[in-house]
Amino acid sequence: MSYAIRLLVIVIWCAVCVHQTGRRVAIFSDERVLWTDAVQKAPTKPRPWVNLGVQYAREGHDGLAEYAFREAIAAAANPDRPTEEQYLGRILGAANLATLRLNAGDIDGAAAILATADEPQNRSWVTSSGVLKWLRTEADKRSSSH
Fold first, then answer.
1. CA 57 → CA 26, 31, 120, distances in Å?
2. How far is C-alpha 98 from the geometric centre of its chain's CA atoms?
3. I want to staple 101 with a disulfide (CB 3.0 to 4.6 A). Which of 28, 109, 124, 146 is the partner?
4. Around Cβ 68, how many Cβ atoms within 10 Å?
5. What share of the chain is helix, strand, coil (3-state, %, to 5)?
6. For residue range 121-146, what is the model confidence (pLDDT) as tens digits?
7. What does each C-alpha distance from 45 to 29, 74, 134 come to in angstroms?
């Protein structure tokens, strides 16, 4: 192969790489676009769903956030996923759903969501963190102030 052809191939290859890098930078510069892209590429993994839900919640899109957290919990239920991924998907999905409920003033709903995460494999997180006890205390405080 002549020098000119090799040089042309290298220049074309570099142009393609620069173009692809530009596309990825655009995706990484916006968190919602990043996590939407991750969900599209790995819809059965809970982590992208959790992170997309967190981003939606940050933007005030609680309905979309709730949908994403429920998708994370559903993805975590897949027995083919590694155990730690199942655990994180259930716990993070439930914790974030409960936070949405709590922010909406629905303490009982938040407690119910966390109680569903209180399966034997999750019990240490839910009980040792005292989250359910704290929610009950908050519910009692709010009901006594009304």
1. 22, 12, 29
2. 14
3. 109
4. 26
5. 80, 0, 20
6. 544 545 545 666 666 666 667 667 65
7. 22, 9, 30
